[in-house]
Amino acid sequence: MARTIIENIVIAQYKKQTFFEFCQYTTIRFFEIVYFEEGSGTIKINGKTVAYSDNSIFVFIPDDIYIIQAETSTTVTAVKFLKSFFRNTTLQNATLPVNNWFRKIEEILNSESHELREMQFETEADRAHLVALVNMVATEYLNKQSFDIFIIQNSLSVILHLIARNIQFINTSDSIKAVKSSKIQQIINFIHANIYNSDLLTTKSLAEEFHMADNYISEYFKKHTDVSLKKYIINYKLKLVETRLKYTDLQYSEIAAELGFTDSSHLNKTFQSYKGITIGDFKASIT
Questions:
Q1: What is the pLDDT of residue 177?
Q2: Among 70, 171, 186, 190, which is disulfide-ready with 74 (CB 3.0 to 4.6 Å)?
Q3: Where are the alpha helices (DSSP H) in 116-182?
């Protein structure tokens, strides 16, 4: 049974079932978290099949299609952000940290580790925290008389933060996981975490942050990534621009200001230079 507790967010919980019909939101879903509290079976995701079991957690992004085939009775909770949540913000959603939530989700949208969508965690503590928070949101949902928007809002914020943090862990190569002091991965992580603060991403600031000479950090980055530091930062920003053009109704000037471009003209010139297409033409191609 589903109930919309915040406009354009749907919470659905099913207890000890073997048949599920909650994929009906696929065409309008932007992002979804599915937590299997107990049970076993398989989940077919975009044509590929993976097993689920107790405490499995999956995340889905736009256009993902999944089908659950339960082998034993299964209890599952789903939290669905509909596409309209990030468009035409209503008065009901105006008090929510919508843009902050979008920033967390966009790290997942731009992740390369999506093939099977099952979450992995750097520590079991992170998994336990996420499970507890999902259960807290579900408990509020089950309160038919009223719900506490403060609990739901803050729980969802932390849930998205935990997922984004662990997506970063998934994307880290095994060799770097074994040597967590890898400086190049630290630099990349720092860039991603501070992409909205251009002052922290200057060559001088990065060199100071990582105790390297100004004229060496760019050389070091290029040596280990085969791309210049400046180009990497711009390319990552333009990925985020594309995400906003696809999933939000932000004005070009708003996107430019958020990502540190001088104005919409500067953003458009940079976008065209790197992508070979204007922002307007890109927007038209996806709508």
A1: 45
A2: 70
A3: 124-142, 149-171, 174-178
Decide: 210 and 183 in contact? Cβ < 8 Å: yes
Q: Distance (Å, rounded) from C-alpha 77 to C-alpha 165? A: 21
88 and 198 both lie in a single domain: no
Q: How many domains does the chain have?
A: 2
Read off the pLDDT of residues 131-152 as tens digits, 9 standing for 90 and up: 999 998 888 876 755 667 778 8
pLDDT digits (tens, 9 = 90+) for 54-101: 999 998 887 788 888 999 999 999 988 877 676 655 444 555 566 777
Residues 254, 150: Cα–Cα separation, whole Å: 28
Q: What pTM did the predictor assign?
A: 0.70
**CA distance linking residue 164 with residue 111, whole number of Å:** 9
Q: Please list, in sequence order, all residues whose beta carbon lies within 8 angstroms of the beta carbon of residue 69, skipping any fewer than 6 positions away.
A: 41, 42, 43, 44
What does the alpha-carbon distance between residue 226 and residue 218 come to, in Å, rounded to a whole number?
11
Last residue of a domain, one of 171, 197, 217: 171
Please give the radius of gyration of the chain, using alpha carbons only, rounded to the nearest integer: 20
101 and 186 fall within a common domain: no
Mean pLDDT, rounded, for 3-32: 74
25 vs 14, 62, 65, 150, CA distance in Å? 16, 10, 10, 25
Q: pLDDT by residue (tens digit) across 199-255?
A: 999 999 999 999 999 889 999 999 999 999 999 999 999 999 998 888 777 889 989
Q: Which residues touch 246 (CB under 8 Å, ≥6 apart)?
A: 286
Tokens representing residue 28 in the block: 């309008």
Domain assignment of residue 79, given as a range: 2-171
Residues 164, 77, single domain; the answer is yes
Q: And the tokens for 225? A: 């990534």
Instruction: Say yes or no: 195 and 60 in one domain.
Output: no
